[in-house]
Amino acid sequence: MHRNVVISGGGTGIGLAAARVFAAGGDRVLLLGRRGDVLERAAVPGALTYEADLADPGAVRGVAGFVGGEFGAVDVLIHGAEGDGPLEPPAGGDDPLDAVAHSWTVNFRLNLLTAALLTEALRHRLAEPGGRVLFLSSLAAYQGRGEPAYAAAKAGLHPYAHALARELGPHGITVNVVAPGYIEDPGLAGDAPAEDPRTRMTGQTLDGRAGTPGDVAATLHWLASPGAGHITSQIIQVNGGAERGH
User: What angle do CA 120, 87, 239 make, to 5 degrees?
Assistant: First the structure.
């Protein structure tokens, strides 16, 4: 029996890899993103697409209406939308505090607000029991590397997921976070440091390689499976041992 899977940021990187894995298993997939041309190029067999800025409450209401009409219930909700602002207008003026405010506001909006709005808009459609909510965090949330505002915004997903897991657990819905390390994929933004990412980031791993979108997609697929039904309120790291414990 197929499941209904909604994936934000589904046009590139991890979101796209996850979409392909779920679609290959026979699930119905909806890809969300704010760039329609990117969604069109994703070419996931059988997948629906919907262009929306998920930081805009009005646009998210449109998503919720579309999901209700096409899917009804949502079995799996994956939050892959993210970024650190390369598509955003630059901060105006030369005041450094204006630049700080711009960076933190953009990162909060792209990485945390998008996830919160979409979750709250669709939470009443999550399958009961069996629904799955999956957030994508980052190794940066633990190490504070790269853009501090990006790391802080990703870290903000963790307590939100714990609170949701507590609220939705009695309904048979699990909520988890996957925190990838450095993922070698040109479609991703945010984790790559200014210096050579392969040399420095793979040097932290225990297996001596960069991660791939497929590594993370496989983890998301497993967390959405019946076999992971007793796993909730967890942060699963996929980083080759670059960060251990927690």
Answer: 70
